[in-house]
Design brief:
seven-stranded mixed sheet; 12 helices; 45% helix; 313 residues; two-stranded antiparallel sheet; alpha/beta
Length: 313
């Protein structure tokens, strides 16, 4: 029986490979609006699957399977693959590729936009991400929480922003927000010639593992603070918080918070002086956001909130 099973799997793999070759010969016109760049290097495909460390009991969610090069390798390892595909032509290619193989019963295709759809339950996420949805997808994925890891390919600069550290040139709000909720590691560089059609820039693969447990903070407050700080990340915090728009926002939020919580506000209260006092108390007045760690952002947010100054109304 094991020999028969092995022969069936070999036949399934050969059929899947032949389907890919046929698709290439038929010269499918790839849609740039969907960011379609098909990964064609089998060694890179295998490396991505290896980095995901998929178990035989795992459900894998794949985004943008295209013609199924990566999907085929995922189906070899996983209990089930749930693939989001927005292009009906690619859906047809996938079904044609795996029809009549043992893999078809393990493949579920969801036709539609993964950003606008609810995520299913899954253990691992693997994807060659379209550039247009990279940022919203990362945050939707991290807020989903219920997964072990994700191995995702992005444009090189976007990937570098995900794992950039304080002081790095590419360190930004995306870096801080992502690393607050997950551990991010760079695992593989992928040159543009590994795709059909080749994109304009190289790509990189990252592995993302959600933090467990998550920091116990108000994420709306956190987002409000980091949005202000990284708008001008090279300015000192003292300069940022002297901005008229920032003062007006925090003053309005302060008044609303005190009113809702029946806190008396003295006639001589000066929001500018209070902000300056908090920054000096934390020794952050001459610090720049581009050099600050998440622990420092959390400390600053805690001190502002403790003084009834909030970043969301």
């Amino acid at each position: 029986m094991p020999k028969v099973k092995k022969e069936r799997q070999g036949a399934a793999q050969r059929k899947a490979q032949n389907s890919t070759q046929q698709a290439v010969r038929q010269s499918i016109t790839f849609n740039k609006d969907f960011g379609q760049h098909i990964l064609r290097n089998p060694m890179v495909v295998q490396s991505i699957v290896d980095k995901a460390a998929i178990k035989s009991s795992d459900v894998v969610m794949e985004i943008g399977p295209g013609t199924g090069n990566l999907t085929a390798k995922l189906l070899e390892k996983a209990k089930k693959v749930i693939a989001f595909e927005i292009d009906p032509r690619m859906v047809a290619e996938l079904r044609k590729r795996f029809m009549g193989t043992p893999y078809m019963s393990k493949l579920e295709i969801i036709v539609g936009d993964c950003i606008k759809s609810d995520f299913p339950d899954f253990d691992v996420c693997v994807a060659n991400m379209p550039y247009q949805i990279s940022s919203p997808f990362v945050f939707k994925l991290l807020l989903h929480r219920k997964f072990r890891c994700a191995v995702l390919m992005f444009q090189k600069e976007f990937a570098e922003r995900l794992y950039a550290k304080p002081g790095d040139k590419l360190y930004c709000r995306l870096s801080a927000n992502t690393q607050l909720m997950a551990r991010v590691a760079h695992v593989l560089k992928v040159g543009k010639n590994n795709f059909k059609p080749p994109p304009k820039v190289d790509s990189s693969v990252v592995r993302i593992e959600p933090m467990n447990p998550m920091p116990k903070i108000n994420f709306v407050e956190w987002d409000g603070l980091t949005r202000i700080l990284f708008t001008r990340k090279n300015k000192t915090l003292s300069a940022i918080f002297k901005s008229k728009s920032v003062i007006e926002l925090l003053s309005k939020n302060y008044q609303i918070y005190c009113s809702l919580n029946e806190i008396m506000v003295s006639d001589d209260f000066d929001i500018k002086a209070k902000i300056d006092e908090i920054l000096k108390e934390c020794a952050f007045n001459e610090t720049r956001a581009r050099t600050m760690s998440n622990d420092q952002f959390l400390k600053l947010l805690e001190r502002f909130n403790a003084n009834n100054i909030h970043f969301s109304s």
